[in-house]
Amino acid sequence: MITIREASTWALLGLMSVHSTPPTARLDNGVARTPPMGWNSWNHFGCNVSEQLIKEEADAIATSGMRDAGYRYVVIDDCWQVARDAKGVIVADSARFPHGIKALADYVHSKGLAFGIYTDAGTKTCQRRPGTLAHEDQDALTYASWGVDYVKEDWCNAAGLTAPIQYAKFRDALAHSGRPIVFSICEWGSNQPWDWAPMVGNLWRTTDDIEDKWPSMLANLDQNGQHASVARPGAWNDPDMLEVGNGGMTDDEYRAHFSLWAIMAAPLMAGHDVRTMSSVTKEILLNREVIAVDQDSLGKQGILVWESAPELQVWSKPLADGSRAVALLNRSTSPAKITASLSRVGLRTDSATVRDLWAHADRGRVGRQYVVEVPSHAAVMVRMTPLH
Ligand code: GLA
């Protein structure tokens, strides 16, 4: 269904460009019905990508249990591409990818995983590799012929372009490629994507790049948390990829990061070195009770329901079975008691059962509220199921 706000955005765009086809509805390409899960090379490896690395990471995703927990898309971010050939076809770095991208996609598929790639809507990527501008149809066909299942399109070197129009071009190019491909829009929330991206892509960044630091993670939480109303199956706000396991935050901070991304129905794209992950990183990323919250079929993004500003917060996400996933977040530097009242989290009953999703323990039945001591820079995450 198209809202009045969406319709007016597109009416405006229709006046701006005779080449754009104003879409009449939300994107319905059949993929990403739950938030995409996978792994992406950027956060840990930057430009240091190669065929060997991607194969080893795919192997580790398959053998570590990550694949079976739902991490499916293995995505090479920037720096795989170096040029275009005489016909304009995009060319991979032959020193780093000696067998080409199709052979690598085949390998990833042979591990029971899906394969993703990165490009940029402008003339060049953020690392100054060839961009997709004026090659949209050609690139989409090339990617489809390689067996690509996921494309992230960035927004560097795009001066003078209009984001909804450029991204719609690539959406249409992917649709004509004949292959179902998840479309990840990455313009950092700079053109109010929450107003138009649900009609164009399956996920869209709402923030600047995450850094492996507590304040950066919280800044992305705060920004992404403002756009909950537009998220739904097939169309997700993206507060950027996970930093869990990269070393810049404490274990408690990483548990909070993962909890909050699940509460926000965020894409869960791991960004660490899977080959060498610690047992704690594994315990966090493979927490099936938290993953189930993120992947819940109702497809609602949770919201901030209470705060003692600026440091204590309660976030709540409605789930398909009528229960609520609740994160009690302590952003302060000292431990604090936090209360989640049933009415605040959205339950209309007098009592509920509580299960702690990190302790994997039932906390029994509570009356009007659940009170818990939360360490500094940490979150307690529970599921509250109403009793009638
Ligand atoms: C931008 C994106 C990042 C990453 C880099 C690659 O900064 O937001 O996620 O893709 O480009 O250069």
Structural class: alpha/beta
Q: What's the pLDDT, averaged over the residues? A: 94
- How far apart are the termini? 34 Å
Biggest sheet: strands, sense, closure? 8 strands, parallel
The tally of beta strands, per DSSP, is 18
Roughly what percent helix? 25-40%
C-alpha geometry: globular
Order of helices and strands: HEHHHEEEHEHEHEEHEHEHHEEEEHEEEE
Low-pLDDT runs of 5+ residues are 1-8, 10-20
Q: Strand order of the main beta sheet, please?
A: 9-8-7-6-5-2-1-10
Number of helices: 12
Bound molecules: alpha-D-galactopyranose
What Rg, in angstroms, do the CA atoms define? 21 Å
Beta-strand portion reads 15-25%
Detailed description of the structure:
The chain is of the alpha/beta class and 388 residues long. The protein has helices spanning 4-16, 42-45, 51-63, 66-69, 100-110, 136-146, 163-176, 214-224, 251-263, 279-285, 288-294, 342-345, and strands spanning 37-40, 73-75, 81-84, 90-92, 114-120, 150-154, 182-185, 203-205, 236-238, 268-270, 303-308, 312-318, 324-330, 336-341, 351-356, 361-366, 369-374, 378-387. A hairpin with a 3-residue loop joins strand 11 (303-308) and strand 12. The longest helix has 14 residues, at 163-176. The two termini are 34 Å apart. Mean pLDDT is 94; it is low at 1-8 and 10-20. The structure holds alpha-D-galactopyranose (GLA).
